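pinging the channel bc i need a second pair of eyes. not urgent but kinda urgent?? the chain im working w is below, pasted from the shared doc
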Amino acid sequence: MAKADTIVIYSDGQAGHPAVTHLPQLAKKMEAGCGFVCLHYAVEPVYERAGWLSVDGKPIDPPPAGRSSTGAGAKEFKEWLGGYFEQFWSVNPHWLADFKTLPNHPVSRGVKPYASSDEWYFNMRFRDNLEGVTPILSAIAPDDTMSRKDGDHGGNPDVRKMVLEEKKPQVVAWAVDRKDGGRGFGFCGGHYHAGWSIDSRISIRRRLVRLCLSRQRKNRPPLLVQFGRRFASSFFVPRKAARRLTSGPAC
């Protein structure tokens, strides 16, 4: 970690998140402008309910909308990554996201609009007013993403209103420029590991490897990366699945 220019985490979240037991070390790296990238479950730090109080001072569960978790990593992820998955606020349904447009941003350069079926988390707990945050992938979630009962990951009144009434586009990937000069990127997809080697995900593979190599300090030159299915298999896919994916066009 000491020599890393960018730290990429693709792992379990919550209590099993490798970052939550290394927050002091990560803080030093972030202060030095290190890049920070979290993929899928890794955008979810520890959730903490203790200390939530209602107006009359009595504990309530779930916490009210508009307040952030006090769990390990929540405050840090909001700063380093720009946002994070927060239980009782964010949700994790499986759905087909149709990304019709992409912003003019270094991360999305050369990437064309596409659609992808995945466990796309949404309604992240972002920085207030999206300060420093640029949405990269956004799509309108279909009504059936709200088919589950309210709970820590299934739904809540706030997100139901956004999806069912307001039809608000949901951000599932974003970039952040930090005041320390470093950069961050959060990506909510990636549940199906074998999906990284499907040809329809050429745009995803290209974008993710490029950003992982470029989420460094602003004064570092951008890197352009070309790689094929064989490389993607070894980089993202479990070994047993990778053996079945041995050739394919470059992307």
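so The helical segments are 23-31, 74-80, 157-165, 202-214, 229-236, 239-242. and The first strand starts at residue 6 and ends at 10. — does that match what u expected or am i reading it wrong
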